[in-house]
Amino acid sequence: MGPILFDWDGTLADSLESFYAANAVILGELGIPFDRDRYRRVYTPDWRRFYRRLGVPEDRLESTNARWAAAFRPATRPMPGAREALLALAAAGHELGLVTATSHRIVDSQIERFGMADLLEVRVCGDDLPVYKPDPAPLRLALERLGVADRPGEAIYVGDAPDDMRMARATGTRAIGIRSLLGDGPALLEAGAEVVHDSVASWTAAFLGRPIAA
Asked: Domains in the chain, start-ordered, CATH in brackets?
């Protein structure tokens, strides 16, 4: 059974509204137009590229990110059925892992609170490497830790943003798209998703060929 790796925010954690709200506050302070459509169009996990695309001046990138960190309120719940899906995949013999652009400081405590710590022991977070998705390095590091760096085609990556799909394709893993605020079906497919689902739970049920216990 090949390993399956996941994005965190918008895929396993119901957190995108928290990200959007914090950005709306700080970009409003800068007088930069920002709404959900623009968020989707310019989003990339690399926060410097993201703010550059929005028009934040180069000399204000660091202070804008610091202001975002102060305004951000982390997710308080997992996506519906996400933990049950992970349990089902683990029971079927798949090793599971996480590759996210969010820092360990935020993610690790959420994983503990959501009861997923034993299911997602391999974690590559945004503060582990100096590069972000769609650069393939974070996913390659996770595959190395899982012992399949030389066999990326055996692995699956599941995420909700087009850059998740691009990273997976650049690494040589299968790419599964999950619809969210950051990526609709056409955008995920264009970026390389082989299929797109509404949730990790629905994809897992289709992948395993059976319903997922609630």
From this structure: 4-14+77-208 (3.40.50.1000), 16-71 (no CATH)
